[in-house]
Structure prediction request, 344 residues.
Amino acid sequence: MSERRVVVVVFSGAMALDVTGPIEVFDTANRLLDAPDAPYRIDFVSADGPLVRMSSGVLVEASPLDAGEGPIDTLLVPGGWSLADALRDRALVSWIGGAAARSRRVASVCGGSFLLAEAGLLDGRRATTHWAYSEAMAGRYPEVTVDAEPIFVWDGPFVTSAGVSTGIDMALALVEADHGAALALETARYLVLFLKRHGGQAQFSTVLDAQLADHPPIRAAQEWILENLHKPLSVAEIAQRANMSLRNFARVFRREVGTTPGQYVERTRIARARELLETTELTIGQIAHRCGFAAPETFFRSFGRTLGLTPKEYRHRFQIITPSGLIDRHHMTDRSRMTDRSPL
Prediction:
């Protein structure tokens, strides 16, 4: 193979980092490759060209979609704030479906997985997308198994990456598959990146993201859980608070909330622990106690199973500190409002 043709399909309002992150990985790999190795040739195509404005104002020079005809090694599809418009563009979706058939592999970044799913390419497959839109994707495309946790998912010839910067992680994995771990590591080092990022998307998602149920007894039970996380909280006790039999409570809770009462309690404990790790200087043991974990070891196991990080690693990455000291999250802009500005 003399070269590996990477075709990037761009559209007005796409997110620039979805595009530039992966192609900088490919370009850096090219510069580090020995001459006999197959380099990456990057082509930009668009129906909105020749100059396509990204959501941040960056202009990308692109050829018409017809220039993307012929065999493709890697088809790359980004997401962006204008994704809803792109999904309504039947010609674009159809072109992606046809181009995928001519591609050795198809990769998406962030909301780009919606475009692959819209083209029917992900039916019966596992995929990921930005954590804030995973539920929307699962609801819109029930034939796709949406996994909100991984940084990227590789299923057959399709590679879907999660939110924005994870396109870089995905591109490093593609370089490793093409040219081996040594080149991928050298590329990561040159770009000052981790070759493999620790943990999944959950570490970046909103902290208290669970919605309160509409059903009054279940909603009351959720509110009571939030107020009593420092206690053991058996399911039987929670059912009693809801004035429901244990069996009926478990059934209705799962229907209303989408998870079992036990799983909800653990998830809520972890969410509260994350908040305390970010905004206080409490010790790990004190946080474990306040969040209702019987012992620090139990906390470590639950935290690691949920986020793929230790509490200490999480605090190191996300503790919110200013020159005047730790910030009280209650005086911050709620991060979850970003999810209300959905591009869909």
Q: What stands out?
A: The longest strand covers residues 4-9. The CA atoms of residues 163 and 198 lie 15 Å apart. DSSP finds 14 helices and twelve strands in the chain. The chain has a mean pLDDT of 88.
